[in-house]
Amino acid sequence: xxxxxxxxxxxxxxxxxxxxxxxxxxxxxxxxxxxxxxxxxxxxxxxxxxxxxxxxxxxxxxxxxxxxxxxxxxxxxxxxxxxxxxxxxxxxxxxxxxxxxxxxxxxxxxxxxxxxxxxxxxxxxxxxxxxxxxxxxxxxxxxxxxxxxxxxxxxxxxxxxxxxxxxxxxxxxxxxxxxxxxxxxxxxxxxxxxxxxxxxxxxxxxxxxxxxxxxxxxxxxxxxxxxxxxxxxxxxxxxxxxxxxxxxxxxxxxxxxxxxxxxxxxx
Length: 267
Hints:
Blueprint: H1 14-21, H2 31-39, H3 48-60, E1 63-65, E2 71-73, E3 88-89, E4 95-96, E5 101-102, E6 107-108, E7 113-114, E8 119-120, E9 125-126, E10 131-132, E11 137-138, E12 143-144, E13 149-150, E14 163-164, E15 169-170, E16 175-176, E17 181-182, E18 187-188, E19 193-194, E20 201-202, E21 207-208, E22 219-226, H4 233-238, E23 243-251, H5 254-259
Parallel strand pairs: 3-6, 4-7, 5-8, 6-9, 7-10, 8-11, 9-12, 10-13, 11-14, 12-15, 13-16, 14-17, 15-18, 16-19, 18-22, 20-23
Antiparallel strand pairs: 1-2, 20-21, 22-23
Helix pairs in contact: 1-2
């Protein structure tokens, strides 16, 4: 969560922001009101009411030509940034769509894309070729390494967004979709895929987590393999077929923390 957010919208209208933050009649608010509340961090796009307003904005949007010949709906144009927001966006090729919140101290390396409704908290690093999908919730001091894909969720309305809690480290090329929750200080190794259809095997505690379960706090998850669980299991084994599965190999300790120390000068 962001502390001490200035809850005044871009038109200087404090009352509308407060009403929206209290979830009073969100669906009856204009897209401009909801968008401003999202962009100041006063509102999260993690509930169905906000998602309905975003989808309404898509429906009502008209195609317009924007800079450099790009075309999009007038309700979904890219944000523009100024120095006073204290957000570092390295040229060139990154886009943050309207209705996304980017906190002070965030670094965005090119090319990356942050979609509508996403929330990216203070001190997070978005490395090159990263996608932060619609309504995704990213905590403080998270590191999204190169080519990480964080899934979005606008349809179906009721689905929860992907949430990455504070101080998590997501390795290069990892894919996290379908509302998976990554708890604080967890480490997702390069190439790991996490979705609702996959069970996580915890080698430390010798348990198998339910499909779609949250990644526990401080867990270190790598990409493993397992034999298929099906009626033709012997045939699958004979063909050398194994399925990718996420595996918790340890929980963070001092050695893990040392290997994940980030160079503050790069920020």
